[in-house]
Write a structure and sequence with these properties.
Length: 262
């Protein structure tokens, strides 16, 4: 008997950064105790959520899986600046999921390589497909997956870029140059925004995925005001192509801001 296929969608691990997702083997490498507390809390939550979802048919990992050398901040936020070790971390994250198939996209050059593509190494280790833009299909449901999307500094503007990318996919598809997506999936902005539209009697979901890097980077803390969402989503697709999606989000205690009492 045919069964549902479970697809996990995630990205923005930023392995190698102090606020990135860090498997247990790589924890405890930072001088600040709070970093290790965060690593244990975030990995523990992630592992429990994944373990509860098994079996998992496929993982779509949507870019910025490694953090890079941290050149803009002199490597001061890195657990390690060695991209080969960061690749090991990301591979360990994905292997923990133990999916039947893996699909990857390329992240931003600053994190993943300007002269090279470190995420290619991750794909090789997993026997995964990787490209800038992917259209994996599951029981007739098509995922339009790409890492980058522009963000918004206002809460009510977070839907705009998603609606734009939904429309562009329709235009490309009408020209016969892209598959028509049922889920428009983007990362990069580290917040979970969702829009739903009906196009030609067909429901199309657009969403930016939550990140698996927590708030607290120098760049984010000093420059931006918006909220950060930590987590991932999964989609169950029936043999007849009915898709149901579920968010997995957590408010981590180790990243909460504290009052400074004077």
């Amino acid at each position: 008997m045919a069964t549902d296929k479970r697809i996990v969608l995630m990205g923005d691990f930023h392995c190698g950064h102090v606020a990135g997702l860090t498997p247990p083997r790589f924890q405890g490498r930072h001088w600040e105790p709070k970093v290790e507390e965060f690593q244990k809390e975030s990995w523990g939550w992630f592992a429990r959520e994944i373990d509860a979802l098994r079996p998992i048919h496929a993982v779509i990992a949507n870019g910025d899986l490694v953090d890079g050398s941290g050149e803009a901040t002199g490597g001061t936020e890195q657990l390690t600046t060695d991209r080969a070790v960061q690749v090991e971390m990301a591979v360990e994250v994905l292997k923990h999921i133990n999916a039947c198939r893996y699909v990857l996209t390329f992240g931003t050059p600053y994190h993943c390589g300007k002269q090279e593509d470190w995420e290619k190494q991750i794909a090789r280790e997993l026997g995964a497909d990787i490209s800038a833009h992917q259209w994996p299909e599951v029981n007739g449901v098509v995922f339009d997956v790409k890492h980058f999307i522009s963000g918004s500094s206002i809460p009510h503007g977070r839907a705009t870029a998603l609606l734009r990318d939904q429309l562009w996919n329709l235009i490309w598809a009408d020209d016969g140059d892209q598959p028509r997506g049922d889920f428009i999936i983007r990362n990069h902005v580290h917040y979970h925004a969702v829009v739903a539209c009906v196009r030609k009697a067909r429901l199309v979901w657009g969403m930016t995925l939550p990140a698996l890097q927590a708030a607290g980077t120098k760049h984010g803390a000093r420059k931006f005001s918006g909220t950060v969402d930590f987590g991932f989503i999964h989609v169950d697709v029936t043999p007849k192509g009915l898709a149901t999606w579920f968010p997995h989000l957590v408010q981590l205690t180790t990243t909460r801001a504290e009052i400074l009492h004077l």
